[in-house]
Specification:
Blueprint lengths: L13 H5 L5 E6 L3 E9 L1 H4 L4 E4 L3 E6 L2 E6 L2 E4 L9 E4 L2 E6 L8 E4 L1 E3 L2 E3 L9 E10 L2 E11 L6 E11 L11 E5 L7 E10 L2 E7 L6 E8 H6 L8 E3 L4 E2 L12 E2 L5 E5 L4 E8 L4 E7 L10 E4 L8 E9 L7 E9 L2 H6 L7 E8 L3
Antiparallel strand pairs: 1-2, 2-28, 3-6, 4-5, 5-8, 6-7, 8-9, 10-11, 12-13, 13-14, 14-15, 16-17, 17-18, 18-19, 18-21, 19-20, 22-23, 23-24, 24-25, 26-27, 27-28
């Protein structure tokens, strides 16, 4: 049964919430608790003179105190002037954070090509490009899920084609020295796997998929971790959550269960403070961040609960690309979201947006 958390529960413990500090927003959470959300800002990303903003912002714990950041479309200022107006846009970039606490000077950015001729970090074809999804460490290898995209004459200007993985055998080295092998996933009935989030569960990698429609119906597949690390993925290697058990596609089973209507980008992680899995996403039309909960990665998932409203959005601006970063140390969980503008010219001029923005969330209970 799906849980519905009623906002009026907040009134029962409003005095407690007011004592927690200014500048935060509070909403109801499971089992009579609350969620506190407070914006931290973008300072960790704005100081670099070359890297002038990007979206996506997924993270992977590489171990040894290093965190990988994965970004989608990115502005690179070849003149290092710190001005987006001088920048070139590439389709993806990365960064390495040293240490698990976010600081103003411990994130180093990387892109492909040379300084005067920047290119995407992950690239394979001149006619299509990759947007990175989520990554995971398997057998000391780094596996990154990628969505292949091409230009299209539609209202978005692009069309997603299929999912791929990048396999890096030496992720502990400098990214400039990474050996990257690419492998294309099987055509999974139009479902793009791994662009949103992945989870390591025992000997499996759980991979969430999007049906590639405007409703963003989310399903769940899993792959044996060892098989994924080999890179040779076949349709018969994939198990799908069918609503009651895991199944491989066959003549009697073709359609996986849809868990909820989500977004193309989101995160799922386990929060030990409430002993539940948490799904974080941005709700584009509502301009709010929201969460769902479940006791298991496959659900059933609760209804969406909106918990944070970004302030002072300008004309044409919208939020998207919300993700959680549980590997980062904080008194709570750090999540990021991004602000874009429908008018590209205004996006270029406004250096206050298109940098991932941190929001710290914390679940609490009434005393």
């Amino acid at each position: 049964m799906r849980n519905k958390f009623k906002p009026k529960l907040i009134l029962l413990f409003l005095p407690l919430l007011l004592a927690l500090g200014p500048g935060a927003q509070y909403s109801a959470a499971p089992e009579g608790g609350y969620i506190e959300a407070k914006e931290i800002g973008s300072a960790a990303f704005t100081r670099d003179k070359v890297w002038r903003g990007g979206d996506g912002a997924a993270t992977v714990d590489l171990g040894n105190g290093r965190v990988l950041w994965l970004f989608g479309d990115t502005f690179i200022d070849t003149k290092a002037s710190g001005k987006r107006s001088n920048a070139t846009m590439v389709h993806n970039s990365i960064a390495i954070q040293t240490g698990y606490k976010v600081k103003k000077n411990n994130i180093r950015f990387y892109h492909g090509g040379k300084r005067g001729n920047p290119k995407s970090f992950f690239r394979k074809s001149s006619k299509t490009w990759f947007w990175p999804g989520q990554g995971v460490m398997v057998n000391e290898k780094l596996i990154i899920f990628l969505c292949e995209v091409r230009k299209a004459k539609n209202k978005f200007g692009f069309k997603t084609l299929n999912w791929h993985i990048a396999i890096i055998d030496n992720p502990q080295d400098n990214p400039k020295e990474w050996f990257i092998d690419y492998a294309e996933g099987p055509k999974t009935s139009g479902i793009i796997l791994g662009f949103s989030t992945v989870l390591k569960v025992k000997n499996y990698i759980y991979v969430y998929g999007d049906d590639n429609t405007s409703k963003h119906k989310i399903c769940l597949a899993r792959l044996a971790a060892d098989k994924l690390a080999e890179g040779d993925i076949k349709e018969e290697d994939i198990e799908w959550w069918a609503g009651d058990k895991w199944k491989r596609k066959s003549n009697t089973f073709q359609t996986p269960a849809f868990l909820f209507e989500g977004a193309s980008e989101f995160s799922i992680y386990y929060d030990p403070s409430i002993k539940k899995y948490i799904q974080i996403q941005a709700f584009f039309l509502k301009s709010k961040l929201g969460f769902r909960t479940a006791n298991r990665p496959e659900g059933p998932w609760s209804e969406a609960n909106l918990f944070y409203t970004p302030q002072n959005l300008g004309k044409g601006e919208f939020i998207y690309s919300a993700r959680a970063h549980p590997e980062l140390k904080s008194k709570g969980t750090l999540i990021t979201y991004n602000i874009n503008n429908k008018n590209f010219g205004k996006l270029v001029k406004n250096e206050n947006i298109y940098f991932p923005r941190f929001v710290k969330i914390r679940f609490g209970r009434r005393k």
